[in-house]
Amino acid sequence: MRFELLRPQSLSEALEFKKQNGEKAKVLAGGTDLLVLLKDQKLTADLVMSLARIRELDFIRFEKGRGVTIGALASHAAVAASPVIQQNFPDLAEACSQVGAVQIQNLGTIGGNLCNASPAADAAPPLLLTDAVLILASARGERSVSVHDFFHGPRQTALQADEILKEIFIPEISGRRGATYLKLGRRKAMEIAIVGVGVAIHLNGSDRVVSECRIAMGSVAPIPVRARRGEVMFKDQEVRDELIEEVAEIAAEEASPISDIRGTRDYRLDMIRVLCRRGVRAALNRALDKKEEGLS
């Protein structure tokens, strides 16, 4: 594993490197994915560009009335420990707290997790629940891409050859929202998800009537996906055990998992049902506890 290492000092310098080298310059954030791929010879690179010195991409910024912006180099540990993330997007905090071991969480970045574009990326389902927007930067300027349009396939994204993920914007969500992210692995820690399910419940008015439900799943299709048919069934409905069971079944029908070393297709389908049921109940309880409007 031999390559030339570029170490830009600023985002503008990194973008200029990307303009000159395009796909030849593999981007290194935390390195917890890229270096493993290079070591295992699943990816080759003559040129690697480390973003480690670009501190302007390492931040979590809250703007009242607008939302939360997370720099692409914010670590999983920083996102998981952020009070504003814990308070308003507990599902994202839970996801980032379950990425590998503590060492991985301290080194790995939320931007790297997304750009690696693994179907099992833990940060993806919670961001799908919020309609997050990804800001992609190049020497030509910046453009915004919905997280729903970012993933094109395993390790394939909307990033163009000269672009770098700059930041993730999560718009403010008003009303009583509860959300959770549940991950199933073969062990309790340091595991890639066999199945990951994020659920968000929105309550307006009645404590039992759902104004909106969102369900996002990872490791069950070539890209992270929303269970949109299942979501619609909760619209303006009172939460009942029978409805939860029906929604969980439909969510499984919307998935297209494969069998691999971590689990069979049938096992994954069963676990989607289990995690969906648990996720709906957990998200509902958090929504019931939510008293204030908007971000806090």
Number of strands: 15
* Topology pattern, helix = H, strand = E: EHEHEEEHHHHHHEEHEEEEEEEHEHH
CATH class of the largest domain: Alpha Beta
Shape: globular
Q: What gap, in angstroms, lies between the N and C termini?
A: 47 Å
Instruction: Walk across the major sheet and give the strand order.
Output: 4-5-10-6-7
Catalogue the unreliable spans.
none
What structural category arises from helix and sheet content?
A: alpha+beta
Remind me, CATH topology of the largest domain?
A: Uridine Diphospho-n-acetylenolpyruvylglucosamine Reductase, domain 3
Biggest sheet overview? 5 strands, antiparallel
The fraction of residues assigned to DSSP E strands is: 25-35%
Rg of Cα set: 19 Å
Oligomeric category: single chain
CATH architecture of the largest domain: 2-Layer Sandwich
Question: Helices and strands in order, then pairings?
Answer:
Elements: E1 4-6, H1 11-21, E2 25-28, H2 34-39, E3 47-50, E4 60-63, E5 67-71, H3 76-81, H4 83-88, H5 90-96, H6 102-107, H7 110-115, H8 124-130, E6 133-138, E7 141-146, H9 147-150, E8 151-153, E9 156-157, E10 164-171, E11 176-184, E12 195-203, E13 209-218, E14 225-226, H10 228-232, E15 237-238, H11 241-253, H12 265-289
Parallel strand pairs: 1-3, 2-3
Antiparallel strand pairs: 4-5, 5-10, 6-7, 6-10, 8-9, 11-12, 12-13, 13-14, 13-15
Helix pairs in contact: 11-12
